[in-house]
């Protein structure tokens, strides 16, 4: 079997399993739908939960993106390092050092502290 | 030291025996169930309750009445819930069951990484979609957790790939015939284990589904949705443990026993360690852990990468 | 529908109970918890997860309303065990058995479903009180905005904590306004229950009434009270294993009348908790009650000065534990790990009094003098119950805390609302 066909089989098996669970539940579950409030320790909500949420770690997410982009280069780099030699190692770690300098700066600015 | 990898034509993975997808499902199901049973046993459960517990829970969720919160986004929730086991199983297709994975992709490590990141999406959608505050907070907690664990995790994966000079998982396993990567890159292995716990939101890193926010992301799930979510959670834990075996513990290499059995034994051992960690350690909050992750885990994993890079040259 | 019934029966072999604690129901809660542990029924964290609601005590009107809300949110199959505060142990067991039978009974469950759909008509039957919010989608408003601590204009959400929440002090309601997961302001309210029982203070109250109580009994109660608090704090801190160990030790002391042999197990437990660097790292600096006099000296005066001072602090904390008993009554000064350490030390100290058959004197209960203590500022004033000084510092500590930290702070203060003046008398900030 082709590898991608095998992945497709895996997906079909999974989908079949999930659909099977839902179908079985449809057949055996007790009737009716409970219209519940969101769980607020025995209180009823006054407003919708969806809101402008204070994601206080957003500075970390920007930092993360910088590194995450860099990871795209690292995957092929890992494969060819042995062939390309020391130059590639130096270049990559110079790049990483620059990024780490950014991390240290962000840390000093308090970006890693939010509580 | 690892020899140069055999140059195979890229993006044309070798053929897969047709039984492997089924074997993968069987193996993961047994591992997930075993993890649940071991967890219950460590929590003081008794035979046979520890093995029937998940089944009784499944039976309850099947007969559950439908339950809706106020104006939920049902497609979003369902997509998030289903994405959890999907991410786990798809990440597992590149892991060798013995010698051969379901799909021996030439970019297996990248594939594993990409599938595993879908868990962010799954948890956040589930937490957001039910329109309830505790799950919403749980979803945001997991995104913060992702920002903390993901980079050390990726560096650990890259270190293994660098050691073997390949992104194909079976070749990484094969490169450890002489010496396990866990032995000569112990920092990367340790970082991987920490990140595995975090990505499976398990044990000390389970705050996104923590009891202090009433079960967090899954607080409003009931019925088949809860069943699929919980199954996905244990599957993900099993996959996180299983990935450590080809990446760091030599895959199916071992004396006397066949490769599949060695793979199974090593996976069970890693899984047992992860399950045990939940009982050994209190919860870890990201507002404290993030600093350690960025200022300790990332630098040490970079140093490990440098050491491996120098050795490989 | 044979399969449905069979699945119901099978699932009922291991229900997932959600406990609702009620003031003056401590004894029955402890009995129920011990029984649930014995049966291996793992606790649920939310009504969606639970199929068994265990109400421990007789709730007053406001608390009963909250319990009804949770009950209404539980999908069938569901069962409920109402355990009044004075229920004898064997009736607790019987009530749980009855609930499990009810869960297994397909006809009863279908009847429950039919009755429910008939009554609520499928919509939010219980939502009489969301007042002005009928305009918004789904009958709810969108969140309003307000300035936050970082100078941003962000949505403000009302996030009530309690009264029905896992690992939560019975009868406590903390109404918080949250932006994201940060508590901006908190208001504390007490939802009462029927009864007079103050389980943790009982030996001292009995002794004060002239009845003969041994120091052994008081030592047992003191250690169990602290282990109960420790169990709650460790559970909130995400350390289920040690939390259940603390609760198991508590149950052995109270119900199995464990003797001196328990000391070794307690020492192992305290050592594991003390040695956990992760726990210290996570708790450090949270909920610090400063050395300076409180903003509201009126009630804070109820808490004596820090450890090491003479006066109130020198009174023996428990019978047979004179000396080596750290910390004042009311909330301990310091942060969450400090209060955790206080409980650990007092548990160990109390255990030294096990087996002491002499008669109990004094009124120094687990949470301070059971009769309360006059405010330090005006010693002539009537005594203030320790719980009030705890509740009065709570809102100040919670403002600005992240939700996880807020829950840890509340767990570390662990007010015993059995001591509070009953029924919806607010202790506001």
Structure summarized in a few sentences:
Chain A is mainly alpha-helical and 115 residues long. Chain A is built from three helices and one strand, in the order H-E-H-H. Chain A is flat and about 70 Å long.
List the defining traits of the structure above.
heterotrimer; B: 313 residues; 11 helices; globular; disordered N terminus; C: 429 residues; alpha+beta; Rossmann fold; 2 domains; three-stranded parallel sheet; 14 helices; 11 strands; disordered C terminus; NAD (chain A)
Number of β-strand runs of chain C:
11
Give the overall form of chain C.
Answer: globular
Number of helices of chain B: 11
Order of helices and strands of chain C: HEHEEHEHHEEEEEHHHHHHHEEHH
- As a whole number of angstroms, the C-alpha radius of gyration of chain C is 22 Å
Mean pLDDT of chain C: 79
Helical content of chain B stands at 55-70%
| Most extensive chain-chain interface | A-B, 66 and 80 residues
What would you say this structure looks like, in words?
- The complex is a heterotrimer of chains A (115), B (313) and C (429).
- In chain A, helix 2 packs antiparallel against helix 3.
- Chain A is built from three helices and one strand.
- Chain A has a single domain, classed as NADH:ubiquinone/plastoquinone oxidoreductase, chain 3 (Methane Monooxygenase Hydroxylase, Chain G, domain 1, Up-down Bundle), CATH 1.20.58.
- Chain A is flat and about 70 Å long.
- The N terminus of chain B is likely disordered.
- Helices cover 67% and strands 1% of the residues of chain B.
- Chain B has one domain.
- Chain B has 313 residues and is an all-alpha fold.
- By secondary structure, chain C is α+β, with helices and mostly antiparallel strands.
- Chain C folds into two domains: 119 residues, Rossmann fold, CATH 3.40.50.12280; 226 residues, no CATH class.
- Strand 1 of chain A pairs parallel with strand 1 of chain B, so a sheet runs across the interface.
């Amino acid at each position: 079997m082709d590898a991608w066909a095998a992945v497709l089989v895996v997906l079909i098996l999974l989908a079949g399993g999930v659909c099977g669970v839902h179908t079985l539940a449809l057949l055996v579950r007790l009737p009716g739908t409970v219209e519940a409030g969101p769980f607020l320790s025995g209180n009823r909500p006054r407003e919708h939960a969806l809101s402008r949420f204070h994601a206080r770690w957003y500075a970390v997410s920007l930092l993360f993106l910088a590194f995450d982009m860099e990871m795209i280069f690292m995957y092929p780099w890992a494969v060819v390092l042995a062939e390309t030699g020391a130059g590639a190692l130096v270049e990559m770690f110079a790049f990483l050092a620059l990024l780490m300098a950014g991390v240290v700066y962000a840390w000093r600015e308090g970006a890693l502290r939010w509580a | 030291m690892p020899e140069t990898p055999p140059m195979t034509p890229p993006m044309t993975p070798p053929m897969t025996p047709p039984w492997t997808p089924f074997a993968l499902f069987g193996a993961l199901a047994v591992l997930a169930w075993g993890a649940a049973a071991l967890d219950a046993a460590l929590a003081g459960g008794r035979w046979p309750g520890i093995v029937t517990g998940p089944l009784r829970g499944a039976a309850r969720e099947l007969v559950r009445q439908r339950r809706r919160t106020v104006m939920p986004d049902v497609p979003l929730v369902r997509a998030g819930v289903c994405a959890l086991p999907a991410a786990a199983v798809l990440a597992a297709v590149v892991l060798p069951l013995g010698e051969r994975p379901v799909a021996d992709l030439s970019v297996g490590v990248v594939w594993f990484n990409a599938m595993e990141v879908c868990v962010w999406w799954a948890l956040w959608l589930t937490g957001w979609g039910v329109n309830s505050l505790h799950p919403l907070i749980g979803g945001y907690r997991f995104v913060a957790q992702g920002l903390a664990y993901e980079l050390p995790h990726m560096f650990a994966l890259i270190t293994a790939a660098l050691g073997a000079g390949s992104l194909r998982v079976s070749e990484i396993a094969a490169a450890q015939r002489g010496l396990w990567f866990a032995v000569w890159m112990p920092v990367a292995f340790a970082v991987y284990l920490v990140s595995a716990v975090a990505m499976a939101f398990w044990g000390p890193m389970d705050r996104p589904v923590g009891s202090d926010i009433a079960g967090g992301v899954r607080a409003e799930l009931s019925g088949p949705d809860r069943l699929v979510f919980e199954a996905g959670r244990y599957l993900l834990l099993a996959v996180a443990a299983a990935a450590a075996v080809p990446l760091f513990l030599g895959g199916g290499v071992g004396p006397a026993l066949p490769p599949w059995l060695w793979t199974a034994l090593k996976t069970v051992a890693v899984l047992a360690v992860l399950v045990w960690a939940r009982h050994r350690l209190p919860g870890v909050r990201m507002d404290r852990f993030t600093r350690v992750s960025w200022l300790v885990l990332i630098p040490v994993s970079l140093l490990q990468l440098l050491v491996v890079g120098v050795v490989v040259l | 529908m044979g399969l449905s019934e069979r699945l119901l029966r099978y699932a009922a072999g291991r229900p997932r109970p959600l406990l609702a604690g009620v003031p003056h129901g401590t004894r029955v809660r402890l009995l129920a918890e011990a029984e649930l542990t014995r049966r291996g029924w793992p606790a649920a964290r939310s009504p969606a997860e639970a199929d068994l609601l265990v109400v421990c005590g007789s709730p007053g009107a406001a608390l009963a309303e909250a319990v009804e809300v949770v009950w209404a949110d539980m999908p069938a199959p569901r069962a409920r065990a109402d355990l009044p505060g004075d229920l004898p142990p064997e009736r607790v067991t019987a009530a749980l058995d009855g609930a499990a039978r009810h869960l297994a009974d397909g006809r009863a469950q279908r009847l429950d479903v039919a009755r429910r759909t008939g009554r609520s008509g499928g919509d939010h039957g219980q939502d009489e009180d969301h007042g002005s919010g009928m305009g918004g989608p789904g009958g709810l408003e969108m969140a309003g905005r307000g300035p936050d601590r970082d100078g941003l204009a962000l949505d403000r959400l009302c996030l009530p904590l309690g009264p029905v929440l896992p690992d939560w002090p019975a009868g406590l309601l903390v109404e918080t306004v949250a932006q994201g997961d940060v508590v901006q302001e908190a208001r504390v309210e007490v939802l009462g229950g029927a009864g007079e029982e103050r389980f943790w203070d009982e030996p001292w109250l009995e002794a004060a009434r002239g009845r003969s109580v041994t120091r052994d009994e008081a030592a047992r109660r003191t250690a169990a009270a602290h282990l109960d608090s420790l169990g709650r704090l460790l559970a909130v801190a995400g350390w289920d294993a040690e939390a259940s160990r603390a609760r198991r030790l508590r149950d052995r002391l109270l119900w199995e009348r464990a003797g001196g042999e328990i000391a070794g197990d307690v020492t192992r437990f305290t050592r594991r908790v003390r040695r956990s660097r992760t726990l210290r790292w996570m708790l450090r600096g949270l909920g610090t009650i400063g050395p300076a006099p409180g903003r509201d000296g009126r009630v804070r005066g109820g808490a004596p000065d820090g450890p090491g001072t003479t006066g109130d602090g020198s009174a023996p904390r428990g019978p047979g534990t004179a000396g080596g008993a750290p910390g004042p009554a009311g909330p301990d000064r310091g942060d969450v790990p400090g209060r955790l350490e206080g409980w650990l030390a007092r548990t160990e100290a109390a255990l030294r009094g096990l087996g002491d058959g002499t008669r109990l004197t004094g009124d120094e209960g687990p949470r301070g003098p059971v009769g309360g203590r006059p405010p330090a500022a005006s010693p002539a004033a009537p005594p203030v119950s320790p719980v009030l000084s705890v509740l009065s510092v709570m809102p100040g500590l919670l403002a600005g805390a992240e939700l996880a930290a807020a829950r840890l702070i509340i767990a570390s203060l662990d007010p015993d609302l059995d001591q509070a003046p009953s029924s919806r008398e607010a202790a506001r900030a």
